[in-house]
Amino acid sequence: EPEVTQTPSHQVTQMGQEVILRCVPISNHLYFYWYRQILGQKVEFLVSFYNNEISEKSEIFDDQFSVERPDGSNFTLKIRSTKLEDSAMYFCASSPGTGVDALHFGNGTRLTVT
Amino acid sequence: QKEVEQDPGPLSVPEGAIVSLNCTYSNSAFQYFMWYRQYSRKGPELLMYTYSSGNKEDGRFTAQVDKSSKYISLFIRDSQPSDSATYLCAPNNDMRFGAGTRLTVKP
To answer: Which candidate, B101, B100, B91, places its Cα nearest to that of B3?
Structure first.
């Protein structure tokens, strides 16, 4: 069964550094998402992406964050200048459509900012 | 008022118990309701969904919607240790999940 893959599984970075988290969504999916989950807390929506542009973003997704689909297969989340509080699990998800089409999640990238 | 409210638990039950997980929502425009399950250190995965009011059964799992009271339930019969996870409700597959209820089924 096709799946969403995320790399790396764990990333350690120093405060102030830029990080890029990578995702390969399922190939025929059209909608792409990033979520964040701080340890022990809820899964928080960051951004959705469709037709090569952001369709919705949360209040968490400020100017430090950006997303890109640089080619036909990858979907990236960039954090420009990481802060300690950016330490979290970041999940990528994709879906073929909206409505009852399920979100398919990757297994996440654990980001640790030191 | 948040659009989705869910008791985060944790909820701990013995193996074989019937589990009831619940969400309330505020937006009466929601028409379908998804349940996702998240195992520790994994991404959420769709468990089941129901459309509009009524019940839907899938094996040991039953999803129930009461639109008049804006109440969504997930029942797990004969709960197993492998059901230990966080359960997330998502009305209308809204991108914003509730807090999720953490369930532990003890052998």
So the answer is: B91
Cβ-proximal residues to B96 (8 Å cutoff; 6+ apart), any chain:
A45, A58, B3, B4
Contact B96, B3 (CB under 8 A): yes
Q: Which residue in chain A has the smallest CA separation from B8?
A: A42
Which amino acid belongs to residue A62?
Answer: D
- Whether A82 has a pLDDT exceeding 80, the answer reads yes
Mean pLDDT over the full length of chain A: 94
pLDDT at B35 over 60: yes
**Are A102 and B99 in contact (CB < 8 Å)?**
no
Nearest residue, CB atoms, A42 vs list B42, B51, B100: B100
Residue B2 has pLDDT above 70, yes or no: no
Per residue in A20-37, pLDDT (tens digit) is 999 999 999 999 999 999
pLDDT at residue number B26? 86
Q: Is A108 left (phi over 0), alpha (psi -120 to 50) or beta?
A: left
A55 touches chain B (CB under 8 A): no
Angle at A100 between CA A27 and CA A98, to 5 degrees: 55
Q: Do B8 and A91 touch (CB under 8 A)?
A: no
Say whether the peptide bond before residue A8 is cis (omega within 30 degrees of 0).
yes
Beta-bridge mates of residue B61: B58, B76
> How far is B65 from B33, CA to CA, in rounded Å?
8
Predicted confidence band at A1 (pLDDT cuts at 50, 70, 90)?
Answer: confident
